[in-house]
Amino acid sequence: MNPSDPLLAKARSYLQTDIDQLTRVTEELDPALTEAVPMICQAVSSGRKIIFTGMGKSYHIAAKCAATFTSTGSPAVLMHPAEAPHGDLGIVPTKFPGGFSPC
């Protein structure tokens, strides 16, 4: 295989773009992550659901997150904010055990 093959060069370029973006993301991690992770872990370990929501593109991302959590055994649901006032809020408990309250 020729190391100067244009296809290999393109593959290296794509991979380098991914590396650059992952590096940027690691530098921009928000300290709120240190608060969110324990809350999620506590909710999952106590059998509560993680509710994902978003509007537009963020809704599609929320759907992927909910699917990922569910596939790993963590109870998660997706709620569209426009549908919430029309009955979907029924998935949100009125009393939150463990001292948490809705955000």
How does this model look, in words?
- With 103 residues, the protein is mainly alpha-helical.
- The protein folds into two domains: 30 residues; 64 residues, no CATH class.
- It is 49% helix and 6% strand.
- The chain is built from three helices and two strands.
- Strands 1-2 form a two-stranded parallel sheet.
- Strand 1, helix 3 and strand 2 form a beta-alpha-beta unit.
- The longest helix is centred in the N-terminal third of the chain and has 22 residues.
- The radius of gyration is 20 Å and the shape is elongated.
Describe the structure concisely for a colleague.
The chain has two domains: about 1-30; about 30-95, no CATH class. The chain contains three helices and two strands, in the order ααβαβ.
Q: How would a crystallographer describe the biggest sheet?
A: 2 strands, parallel
Structural domain count: 2
The pLDDT mean sits at 85
Morphology:
elongated
Strand content: 5-15%
The span between the termini is 56 Å
Low-pLDDT stretches are none
Query: Count of helical segments?
Result: 3
* Total E-strand runs: 2
User: Structural class of the secondary structure composition?
Assistant: mainly alpha
Order of helices and strands: HHEHE
Strand order of the largest sheet: 1-2
Radius of gyration: 20 Å
**What level of helicity do the residues show?**
40-55%
Give descriptors for this structure:
2 strands, 2 domains, elongated, 103 residues, mainly alpha, 3 helices
Which helices and strands occur, and which strands form pairs?
Layout: H1 6-27, H2 33-45, E1 50-52, H3 57-71, E2 76-78
Parallel strand pairs: 1-2
